[in-house]
DNA sequence: CGTTGACTTTACACAGTGTAAATTTACACC
DNA sequence: GGTGTAAATTTACACTGTGTAAAGTCAACG
């Protein structure tokens, strides 16, 4: 399996990344990836036990390259619950397009491949933690309209990748509109207004 | 291809239906379906040109069996926009669990199969019409908060199958809670309250 | 100079889809 | 009863893609 960051391993990961990004969900063949990486198909199996694990490694590589942890932790800086909610939505919502190609592939594979399902499930569970934290902040402000569990579920759903895909890919919404709308929807769905809104 | 409703054809469709329902998204093999239908694998090809078309035919068969048209047209009876929105959400939202198994399969295949993508796209486009009609009703009442196009996109997304899947399958919400929440979210996201709400 | 590690090359087993053609079964009509 | 015909079955095969296996190349390192 060779060392964790051998140059060839990295080249393979980058090749997979590019291929999945240009063709989201289609699951490039091993031979395609090998070709793109400039190695033999068999070489892929020297670094990854199988196709699924290669793709899982690709998501992890992306997370590492982009520094998801840093990015999401910034949203924890916000003081009020509302600010924190917005910051989290912005952070994650703007992260989705960067990872969509690979993510979509894993989501599709999830249906038939147990390992893919497990890996993807864990990843989504991590994201849920972020939602839970934002909800907790709202709760501390006494702004929450629902039980924290349900509110987390709801935010988690609004920020799910299929929702992003539907609005931006299918409906053709620009990213900013997506972000703005999810913010509005989340705020309306989770919180109760702090004081009388636009009433006469 | 034999006649449209030969008994064997129906048996095959029912077999596919059952298999896809018990194992959503996994795309049963032709041999599995044949076995379940009690015919030879080759017989499937006498009735359907390929696996994709068999699954597409299965969704159409479901729609026919359940009478989607009737069901959705009932939501058109409601007078006010608000009532109509609720009726539509209830009709479609309660239809999803009935078709989920087969639908999920087609959604997964969509990524790799062009025919599946086209068929599924058309189906979702039909559903969008329903959303547009509900939005139009709200607009006539002057209750709409957004442009009709954007409101339709939003309702369409809230009522999408992945959203249902996320809340009921992943989060484990009971169907009624799903319906109630989507109603609330849609109302809040699309409309502006008719008069001053709970302001002091 | 020999060893070691990384990669290539060639070959193959296996699963699943779809094509093809010969054969069986059953029923319908004269 | 014999013939024709449609629906299925049976058998065989081509093709694609994954993953395994093993032998060979080649350069670096000691």
Written description of the protein model:
- Chain A is mostly helical and 200 residues long.
- Chain A has 10 helices and no strands.
- In chain A, helix 1 packs across helix 2 (30-37), helix 6 packs antiparallel against helix 7 and helix 6 packs across helix 10.
- Chain A is elongated and about 60 Å long.
- The model of chain A is unreliable at 195-200 (pLDDT under 50).
- Chain A binds chain B through residues 24-27, 104, 108, 111-112, 124, 153-154, 156-157, 160, 162-163, 166-167, 170-171, 173, 181, 184-185, 188-189, 196-197, 199-200, and chain B through 24-27, 104, 108, 111-112, 124, 153-154, 156-157, 160, 162-163, 166-167, 170-171, 173, 181, 184-185, 188-189, 196-197, 199-200.
- Chain B binds a DNA duplex (30 and 30 nucleotides) through helix 3.
């Amino acid at each position: 399996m060779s060392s964790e960051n051998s140059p060839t391993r990295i080249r393979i990961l980058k090749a997979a990344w590019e291929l999945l990004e240009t063709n989201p969900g289609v699951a490039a063949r091993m031979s395609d990836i090998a070709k793109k990486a400039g190695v033999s198909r068999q070489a892929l199996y020297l670094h990854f036990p199988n196709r699924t694990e290669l793709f899982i490694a690709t998501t992890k590589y992306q997370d590492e390259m982009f520094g998801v942890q840093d990015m999401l932790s910034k949203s924890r800086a916000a003081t009020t619950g509302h600010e924190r909610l917005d910051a989290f939505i912005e952070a994650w919502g703007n992260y989705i397009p960067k990872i969509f190609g690979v993510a979509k592939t894993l989501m599709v594979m999830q249906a038939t491949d147990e390992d893919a399902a497990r890996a993807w499930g864990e990843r989504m569970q991590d994201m849920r933690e972020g939602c839970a934290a934002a909800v907790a902040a709202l709760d501390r402000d006494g702004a929450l309209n629902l039980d924290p569990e349900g509110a987390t579920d709801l935010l988690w759903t609004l920020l799910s990748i299929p929702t992003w895909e539907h609005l931006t890919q299918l409906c053709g919404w620009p990213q900013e509109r997506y972000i703005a709308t999810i913010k509005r929807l989340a705020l309306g769905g989770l919180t109760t207004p702090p004081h009388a809104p636009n009433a006469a």
